[in-house]
Structures are given as structure tokens and as C-alpha cells.
Amino acid sequence: MGARVLVQLVRADFLERVRRHSFLVTLGFTVFAAYMFLPPNHARYSTLHFAEYRGIYNSAWVGSLIAMMSATFLGLAGFYLVRNAVERDRWTGVGQILAATPLSKPLYLLGKLASNFAVLVAMVAVLAASAAVMQVLRGEDSHVQPLALVTPFVVVTLPLMAVVAALAVVFEVTPGLRGGMGNVVYFFFWMSSLSLTAAPWGRGLPDPLGGELLIDQMHTACAAAFADFPTGRQLSMGFNIKTEGVWDLRTFAWSGAIWTPAMLAERASWVAAAIALTMLAALWFDRFDAHALPGRRRGRGGRRDRRSLSAALEVETEAEAVEPIMAAAGALGIGSRGEPTAVDPGAARLRLGELALAETRIMLKGVSRWWFLVVLGLIATGLFVPLQGVKQFVAPFALIWPLLIWSPLGSRERQHRTDALLFSTPRPVARLLVAQWLAGSLLALAVTSGALVRFALTGQWTNVAALLVAAAFVPSLALALGTWSGSAKLFEVLYLILWYLGPMNRIPGLDFVGVTQPQAGVGPVVVYLPLTAGLAGLALFGRMRQLRG
Q1: What angle do CA 466, 470, 471 make, to 5 degrees?
Q2: Nearest by Cα to 62 from 126, 140, 124, 121
Q3: Phi, psi (deg, nearest 5) at residue 168
Q4: End-to-end CA distance of the chain
Q5: φ, ψ for residue 75, nearest 5 deg
Q6: CA 349 to CA 468: how far, in whole Å?
Q7: What would you report as the CA-atom Rg of the chain, rounded to the nearest whole angstrom?
Q8: How far apart are CA 277 and CA 274, in angstroms?
Q9: What is the 3-state secondary structure (H, E, C) of 364-393?
């Protein structure tokens, strides 16, 4: 009975998720990534080479290369793709129905682990098929050997996907990691893990990616193939772009990795670890029990007084939710019973200002005083630390701190099911959307005010302009992604990646803060000002689409 229930859970969950637009979009990006992972010789960039050498694009090299790089890609993107299985059951009420059945917590979580893993396996299978097509298209060795091509995906990529699937389950059932904070924590956890495994002193540590098993054998084969191969480990992996000229790499035939029983056992241990991690998470999984809170009052015989607690929770929830919603509704001209009230056309500007203030209250509802203390610290730091530190560290960190406050923009109404109320007001597109954008922009200006004042006092006008554009760009991005996806997660992930690659890693095209711009340059203003306008247009069309839907 338990096995049959588990199979049905996995099947239903898998079919529901592979039919989503997000799955198809991620799949399309994954196939495109496979294409980019395999550049032809004499291209401007290379993805894997040892000094000036690499393997010829036969099945063994192509399968190994794409398996390693797709593990890195799907280790991040795959987590966010599958991290909503438990939360969806909680939000739709399916979880409460399952909680009334004999289904145990470990069995339920194992079902979610299996469905997460099945979704990721489907994407890996598409990648393996794409690798075969890419091998033929590159034409260096058109003879496809299925076993040599597929084995690296099975041994290297799939065990990591099991770990990612398990971490998605653990994050969803762990208090404090269920929401947007979990998205942020996992992003930095994954980036730190990649940095750790890539560092020379990180060799010998547990490697869930499994790349070292392949790279060591590739390096040995490359050194044996060329008499002039330099001593030491001359590895370059990733997107290595030449500023001038192209990569002219010498190639050799590599027959593939030799998989020893110890290697296979090491990879299988990661699958076992994923199962153990999921079973461990069952210890603190609440099984959709809304009353599983600390400090509950107990009734007779030690039983929890669920009725009184339920009433208290309902009252608290109503008080928390209705106050900011009614403030916004009042600014829009809706009466207490939901019907429109008379709005003075001459007070439109005042109404927009009131609505922007109401949106600000909604954004900051429930934010702890510690959050505001950090904001005050960022403002003070921007005023007093050395100017270069303000530009490289204070301003970028100020624009990541309100991430979880910006992320619900554009999707909050749908998530809290207030869209029918708010979208029935006069001019819901222009007034409500503009008010949300104003609230988000004012928040950006507030957290960066110390840096803005410092740049203005020292005549750093290009940096002032860059921060002003960033203050308009970030809420525009949140609104556009929120209205089209209906979720805060897309903004949280994409904005984290953009912030990490741009301001923090100083990639000029992605630096929307102006860290990399010269003193006399226009920097991100030329790029991100029109992009902000385009995103505002997307948000506008997305809101109109919501109204029609």
C-alpha cells in the first residue's frame, strides 16, 4: 500500500510540474547552455582546456564536458525549479487533505524527493540527447558512442541531482528557509560550494559535483598525448573569453574515463546521503499542522487546545492582513464593504501619494527592527567610510539588503488573493502599478541615501546618476517579473545572479550600480535607463494581462 501511494504521489507531482511554463523555459535555457558549453575550435571563448590543449569532440569528451558543466548549471537552476512541491500542497490545501490520511511524514517527503529527482532526470536526459546532436554538429568526430556519451551523465550529474532534490525538500520543510530567505541562503551556499571545490586547497574534500573524477583522468591523458605539455595542473574551466584573437587549441583523442568500483561507490553514496537527508527532515516537518507552534496551551489530559489556538490564529491573521489591504483600498476609493466610493478627480495626486504610502506600509509590514538597524548602519557607513569602499561595497550591499521586500512586487495581490478586490478599482493599472513602483523606488533611495549624499558632496555625479537609475531599475524588474510569473521567486533568483555577477564580480555589462564605470564615463545609465523603461512597459502589459485573466 505504501509503495503504491508513493508511486501515485510521484507520478501526479511529476506530470503537474513538467506541464508548467517554467519547466519549458528552464529546459530551453538548459539546451541553449549545452550549445554554449561546446564552442568550436578557433572561437572567442573556451569552456575546458589544459594549457593550450583539449580533447577532440568525440562522445567521451562531449559527454564528460557537458555532464560537468550541466551539473554546475542545474545545481543552481534545478533547485529553484523544483523547490515548490511542498509549498504548493500547503498553499492549495492539498497538504491538509493528505494530513488527514495515514500517509506518514517520511513517506510523503520521500515522494517529494522522488518527484523532484524525476523532474531533474528529465532535464538531464534532454541534455544528454542535446550532447549527441552537438557532437554531430561540431563535426570533429561524428561517430556517436551512446555508452561513452551517457555514462558521465549517469555517474556524475545524476547523483548531484539527487542531492539538489533533497535540499529542495529540506529547505521547504525547515522554518526560516521556506520563503525567500531560503532562496538567498541556497544561492550563497551554492556559490560558496563552487568556490570551495575550485580552490586548490579544496581538493580532497567531498565533491558532490564529481568533476574531479573526470578532470584528473583528462589531465593525465592530455599530459601523455603531448611531449611539450607543461608541468603542473594547467586547467581552465568555465567561459574563458579572449579580448583579442581566438582560441587555437591542439586536440587529442580521449577514450573516456575508467570507472573503478571505488569511484562508483563514492557517487552512489551521494544518493544515499540525499535519502538520509530527506528522512532527517521528517523529524521537524509539521505535516501541514497549522497548530504546530511552540508554547501552545494544553487542555485536559495534556491535549492541545486546538480550538482556542485556531481562533487566536484567525484573529491575528485577519488583523495582520486586513489593515494594509484596507489602507490601499481606501486610497483607491473602495468602501469598507468593497463597493467603490466617490473619488474627487481633483485629488488624484493626493490619492496616488496616499496609495504609495499604503504600498510602502504593506512592503514593510512585519519587518523587524533589526532590519531597520542594518539600513541605518548602511546609511551611516556610506557617509563616513572611504569613498572607494562606498562605491565597491556599501552601495552594492545596500541594493541587495531589501531583496525580500522588493520581490513580492507585482505578485503580492495574486499570492494573497486580493487581486479581485484591488483590480476592480478605478484605473488599477496606472494608479496601483505606479504606486507600487514609487514605493519600491523610495525604498531603494532610502537604503542608498548615505552613498548618494556622499557621492554628491564629493562631486561623483556619474555615481549619483548610476544609483538613481538603479533605484528605478530594481522595482521595475521586480514588477515585470512578478506580474508575468505570478511569483516572487523569479525576481529573487535572477536579481541575485545579476547582483552577484555585476556589482560584486565587476562584469561591466551587468554592473547596474556603477562599480566598474570610470569617473568620466556614463556607465550603466546608458544601458539600464532604457532597460528600466522597457521593464516598466512589460510590467504594464503584464498587469493588463492579469486584468483580462
Answers
A1: 120
A2: 140
A3: -60, -40
A4: 41
A5: -60, -30
A6: 23
A7: 27
A8: 5
A9: HCCCCHHHHHHHHHHHHHHHHCCHHHHHHH
What is the pLDDT at residue 302? Answer: 41
- Domain positions in the chain are 2-281, 311-548
Angle subtended at Cα 52 by Cα 49 and Cα 56, rounded to the nearest 5 degrees: 55
Closest by CA position to 455, among listed 374, 536, 390, 502: 390
Amino acid (1-letter code) at residue 469: V
According to the model, what pLDDT value does residue 340 have? 47
Q: Which three cell numbers stand for residue 268?
A: 552512489
pLDDT of residue 240: 80
**What is residue 296's predicted lDDT score, i.e. its pLDDT?**
42
Q: Report whether 472 contacts 441 (CB < 8 A).
A: yes
Residue with cell 510602502: 360
Residues 542 and 486 sit within 8 Å (Cβ to Cβ): no
List per-block mean pLDDT (blocks of 10 residues) for the chain, which spans 549 residues: 72 82 78 84 86 89 90 87 84 78 84 92 91 89 91 94 94 86 87 73 69 87 86 77 84 90 92 94 81 42 39 37 47 47 47 80 84 90 88 90 89 73 67 87 93 90 90 93 85 89 82 74 78 91 77
Of 391, 449, 208, 171, nearest in space to 285 by CA: 171
* CA-to-CA dists, residue 268 to 114, 205, 264, 441, angstroms: 16, 16, 6, 49
Instruction: Quote the pLDDT of residue 361.
Output: 86
Q: Which of 411, 406, 427, 403 is nearest to 476 (CA)?
A: 406
Rounded CA gap, 105 and 111, in Å?
10
Residues 6+ away with beta carbon under 8 Å from 322:
none
Q: 404 and 492 in contact (C-beta within 8 Å)?
A: yes
Beta bridge partners of 235: 50
Residue 454 near residue 389, CB atoms below 8 Å: no
334 - beta bridge partners? 340
Burial class (CB in 10 A: 0-12, 13-18, 19+), 227: exposed
Alpha carbon distance 379, 448 (integer Å): 7
**Which of the 8 DSSP states describes residue 230?**
P
Beta-bridged to residue 45, according to DSSP, are 241
| pLDDT at residue 57 in the model | 92
| Adjacent-strand bridge partners of 355 | none
The cell for 142 is 561524428
CA-based diameter of the chain, in Å? 87
pTM for the full model?
A: 0.74
